[in-house]
Amino acid sequence: MADHMKEMEKEIEEDRRQGIRRKLLLHACCAPCSSGCLSAICPHFHVSIYFFNPNISSLEEYERRYREEERFLEILKENGEEGAEELSLTDPGYDHGEWLLAVKGLENEPERGRRCEACFRMRLEKTFMEAASKGYDCVTTTLTLSPLKDANLINRIGTELSEKYNVHWLPSDFKKRDGFLKSVRLSEKYGLYRQDFCGCEFSKRERNEKSDRIVE
Fold it and tell me: 26 pairs with which residues across the strands?
């Protein structure tokens, strides 16, 4: 099985050796996940953040997560974190209907099933389209921070889209190297809103059903 973080670290070392710093578009799903990823990439890339998450079940939840992303980036800048001073955040807009069409027929798939694969692909493809149109060198995502998501699948999708859009995919498995643990600690330190479901109404339904069974 590939060690995606080792692959990333090799690329970073090669960039350092050549004295270059590439432009990276980071797809971000929420502030807690960003907290576990940015320290690994900000010192080595010119990072911009793309908050494309139409999977989120309601506009209220979407706006809450976006505001927390904004707030966390301001914290990094105020703290003088390396590379944070040039961070930017783009919100391409919220269209849950567009996402529902992308996963149509997969509503009853379990978490980590085909619906999640379609969701990852849609969100990453939009990120690659943005990167290609704006001249970014590479793309990656905070999605690999979660222990509940398949990093191998996400990296496979990223590699496929890289070939389609001619923008490099930066491999990652941000949960490794204590990345997930770091995100938990930073969320507690800064009081970040840490949601208890992935985002869509189907993951929320599955979470609720599991909670009901535990209570019973």
Answer: 49, 140
